[in-house]
Amino acid sequence: MKKIIMIAAAGEDNSLGKDNDLLWHLPDDFKRFKRLTSGHKIIMGRKTFESFPKPLPNRTHIIITRDENYTTNYDHCIVVHSIEDALNLISNEEAYIIGGGEIYKQGEEYSDFIELTRVHGQFEADTYFPEIDEDIWEVIEKEYHPKDEKHKFDFTYVTYERRP
């Protein structure tokens, strides 16, 4: 069965990033992202893809861009020109929408779950996660993590499922 999951880390004000970079460094969140997305297709916008030093290992990257001439020489990377084209490449499998802000907005209506790391703080950002409508999304799991020597901010993993 096809299962589309949006995965993101966002501040309490839904901030995602600034200047195509993350606003925090949360090693445990990186590990969780890797564990959840490894072995799956990940859907992202071109700017998100270009923010990586190289493609993430053990994942097929589906890159959405309006640029009809955009190409990449990396293996396991597919370029498409709309969220619908990206989703047409997903069959009976899990796939993750990993950003950025515009791709989350476009992908939300097609998503079944949201894996959100809610970073407890307000941040200066230029990219935001869409507002989560509690009439559409139900929290099914929460796991709080206090700040520590490796994590400058408290954060909570929140799993949402689309209401029937």
How would the blueprint of this fold be written?
Blueprint (H helix, E strand, L loop, with lengths): L2 E9 L3 E4 L2 E2 L4 H11 L3 E5 H5 L9 E5 L12 E4 L2 H5 L6 E6 L1 H7 L5 E7 L7 E2 L8 E9 L9 E8 L2
Parallel strand pairs: 1-7, 1-8, 4-5, 4-7, 5-6
Antiparallel strand pairs: 2-3, 2-9, 8-11, 10-11
EC number: 1.5.1.3
Family: Belongs to the dihydrofolate reductase family.
Pathway: Cofactor biosynthesis; tetrahydrofolate biosynthesis; 5,6,7,8-tetrahydrofolate from 7,8-dihydrofolate: step 1/1
Question: How would you sum up this structure, described in words?
Answer:
- 17% of the residues lie in helices and 37% in strands.
- The protein is globular and about 45 Å long.
- The protein has a single domain (3-162), classed as Dihydrofolate Reductase, subunit A (3-Layer(aba) Sandwich).
- The protein contains four helices and eleven strands.
- The mean pLDDT is 97.
- It is α/β, with parallel strands linked by helices.
- Strand 4 (41-45), helix 2 and strand 5 (60-64) form a beta-alpha-beta unit.
Write a short abstract of this structure.
The protein has helices spanning 27-37, 46-50, 83-87, 101-107, and strands spanning 3-11, 15-18, 21-22, 41-45, 60-64, 77-80, 94-99, 113-119, 127-128, 137-145, 155-162.
Low-confidence runs: none
Tell me the structural class: alpha/beta
In CATH, the architecture is 3-Layer(aba) Sandwich
The overall average pLDDT, rounded, is: 97
Shape: globular
Q: Helix fraction? A: 10-25%
* Strand fraction: 35-45%
What is the N-to-C succession of helices and strands?
EEEHEHEEHEHEEEE
At the fourth level of CATH, the homologous superfamily is Dihydrofolate Reductase, subunit A
What about the largest sheet?
8 strands, mixed
Give the domain tally: 1
Number of helices: 4
Strand neighbour order, sheet with most strands: 6-5-4-7-1-8-11-10
Q: Total number of β-strand segments?
A: 11
Reported by name, the CATH topology is Dihydrofolate Reductase, subunit A
Radius of gyration: 15 Å
How far apart, in Å, are the first and last alpha carbons?
16 Å
